[in-house]
Amino acid sequence: MSSNIKSSSSTPSISGRRPALILLPGMPLDAALWDHQVRHLGEVANPQVVELSDCDSIAAMADKALAQASERFAVAGLSMGGYVALEILRRAPERVERLALLDTNARPDTVEATTTRRDAVALARQGRYGQVIRAALPRLIHPQRLADEGFVRSVLAQMERVGVDGYAREQEAIINRMDSRLGLAAIRCPTLVVCGRQDILTPPALHEEMAEAIPGARLVLIEECGHLSAMEQPQAVTALMRDWLLRD
How far is residue 198's CA from residue 29's CA, in Å, rounded to a whole number? Predict the structure, then answer.
């Protein structure tokens, strides 16, 4: 079911404890993607961002997150982070209490996308990484954000910190990711699916597909928002995640 952003009242879970919350960045981004959520969800969870750029497969990323996580935890992943979250569920479904999938999809890479990724990695390795990441911005963020110099600098700074080698590893991981669609119906934990209304890379239809396949999933489309919802509309995403964490 799709809905717009609304305020809602929630009560803490019966256990009264703060769940561990694993946050997984997209490619090629780092912990700064989740700054707002880390700062404002501490009352209801114990957030921890897992850096992924040192891994060259989704499986290795999932293993790294599982090694750093508590025995039981909630997990939220944006874009590539969503692929990792779904892999975590494949490997340790009994450990995942809640799942949030943001601006991602459950499908494998297409032939066309793989070609584009390999071309971009080749350019980056030729010393044109700055050109590659700047060229990606119009597909990553809402058009209105392109004029926000501070916001653009923050996105580019993350990409620069990940660097060429990290970028190449993450692209390789994404190229070789599994088709996760068949496993969606087996998900039993409370699931939130979020997408920017103007997300070009993973548009709303892909999120509708996931939400329809996951039993009881809640789908929310965020207005005036592109692919980087956690940064572009941080208050909205944080409010949604707070509600997701508190619902019984």
Answer: 20
* Sheet of 73-78, strand order: 2-3, 218-222, 191-196, 96-102, 73-78, 20-24, 46-49
pLDDT per residue as tens digits for the range 29-81: 999 999 999 999 999 999 999 999 999 999 999 999 999 999 999 999 999 99
Non-local CB neighbours of 106 within 8 Å, separated by 6+ positions: 86, 179, 180, 181, 184, 206, 209, 210, 213
The closest of 88, 93, 85 to 192, measured between CA atoms, is 85
Pairing of strands 73-78, 20-24: parallel
Collapsed DSSP state (helix, strand, coil) of residue 16 = coil
Burial of 202-232, coded b for 16+ CB within 10 Å and e otherwise, reads: bbbebbbbbbebbeebbbbbbeebbbbbbbb
Stated pTM of the model: 0.92
In eight-state DSSP terms, residue 248 is -
Cα–Cα distance measured from residue 230 to residue 240, given in angstroms and rounded to the nearest whole number: 11
Structure tokens at 164: 């060429």
Task: For domain 2-108+175-246, give the CATH number.
Answer: 3.40.50.1820
Tokens of 145: 């954000």
Residue 146 buriedness (CB in 10 A; 0-12 / 13-18 / 19+): middle
pLDDT band for position 16 (cuts 50, 70, 90): low
Percent of the chain with pLDDT over 90: 92
- What are the pLDDT digits (tens) for 185-229? 999 999 999 999 999 999 999 999 999 999 999 999 999 999 999
Residue extents of the structural domains in the chain: 2-108+175-246
